[in-house]
Design brief:
The chain is α/β, with parallel strands linked by helices. Helices cover 29% and strands 21% of the residues. It is built from 9 helices and 10 strands. Helix 5 (115-127) runs parallel beside helix 6.
C-alpha cells in the first residue's frame, strides 16, 4: 500500500465509488482487517472516522469505522491505544502492537482492548436494516466473533423487523459460502426466512406482495468484492415491506 496511489490507479476505482456513496448517519463499517486501505482511500479523514476505543463518534458528520481486531498502526502505550506512523512501526521491535492476531489469546486480547468498539459495533448491527458481509466468512479461528455477530443479528427490541443480509464471498457458490448462509439462518428468531438463490436477478426483490411484516432475507451475490462495491447501491436497495 505504501507504493500504491488510490487516486491514480484504475484498480481502486470500485472502492473510490463505494466510499463516495457512503452516507454519514446511515452507514457504518465494521472490519477485521489490520491494513490501512481505508486510510489510503480517505487520507484526510473527511469522510471516514476510524474509531479507537472510547473515542466519541461524530454522528451524522462522518461514517464510523470499527476495527474490531485493531490496526497495523495501532500500539498500546500506558494502557491506551494510540496511532503511530505505520512505516516506523513495521521496522520497530520495541512496541506493543494493538493487534488481535490469530492464536490462543486472540479473543482475550480483543475483549480486553477492543470491548468498547465491539459493543458499539454490535449496536449498529442490531439496528441495521441492511447488512453486507463482504469478504468475511466467519473463519473457524473467530468463534467469538461468530457468536457475537450472530447474536446481534437476532430480532431484539429496537431491531428492524425486516432485515436484508447480502453475502459477497466470491464468484462461486462453495461449501464455505453455504456454511455462512446456514449460520445466518439461525438469526430468524421471530422472522420469516427467505433465501434468494445466487442466480436470481439482483432486482428480483421488488415483487413484495404478500410478504410478512417480519422477514429476514439472505441474498448471495456470486461476485468478487470489487464487482459488488462498484455498484452496491443498485444491487442492494432496501426492500420495501408489502
Amino acid at each position: 500500500l505504501f507504493r500504491r496511489d488510490p487516486n491514480g490507479e484504475e484498480s481502486w476505482s470500485p472502492f473510490r465509488r463505494w466510499m463516495a456513496n457512503l452516507e454519514p448517519g446511515e452507514d457504518s463499517i465494521i472490519t477485521f482487517n489490520y491494513d490501512r486501505v481505508l486510510e489510503e482511500l480517505d487520507p484526510k479523514g473527511g469522510k471516514l472516522q476510524i474509531l479507537k476505543p472510547d473515542e466519541p463518534e461524530d454522528q451524522g458528520k462522518r461514517v464510523q469505522v470499527y476495527r474490531l481486531h485493531g490496526g497495523v498502526d495501532w500500539v498500546i502505550e500506558a494502557d491506551k491505544i494510540v496511532q503511530k506512523n505505520a512505516r516506523e512501526l513495521l521496522k520497530s521491535e520495541d512496541v506493543q502492537s494493538a493487534l488481535a492476531v490469530p492464536g490462543r489469546g486472540k479473543a482475550h486480547f480483543a475483549e480486553k482492548h477492543f470491548e468498547d468498539l465491539w459493543k458499539r459495533a454490535e449496536g449498529h448491527i442490531s439496528r441495521a436494516q441492511t447488512v453486507f458481509l463482504v469478504g468475511y466468512g466467519f473463519p473457524k479461528s473467530d468463534s467469538m466473533a461468530l457468536r457475537r455477530i450472530l447474536d446481534a443479528l437476532k430480532l431484539k427490541t429496537g431491531a428492524p423487523p425486516h432485515r436484508d443480509i447480502h453475502l459477497v464471498l466470491g464468484a462461486e457458490t462453495t461449501a464455505a459460502t453455504r456454511r455462512v448462509a446456514a449460520l445466518l439462518q439461525t438469526c430468524t428468531a421471530g422472522r420469516c426466512l427467505e433465501v434468494v438463490p445466487p442466480e436470481a436477478p439482483f432486482d428480483s426483490h421488488r415483487n413484495t406482495i404478500g410478504r410478512p411484516d417480519q422477514l429476514l432475507r439472505i441474498k448471495q451475490h456470486p461476485l468478487w468484492t470489487q464487482d459488488f462495491l462498484g455498484d452496491w447501491q443498485d444491487r442492494a436497495e432496501p426492500i420495501p415491506l408489502a
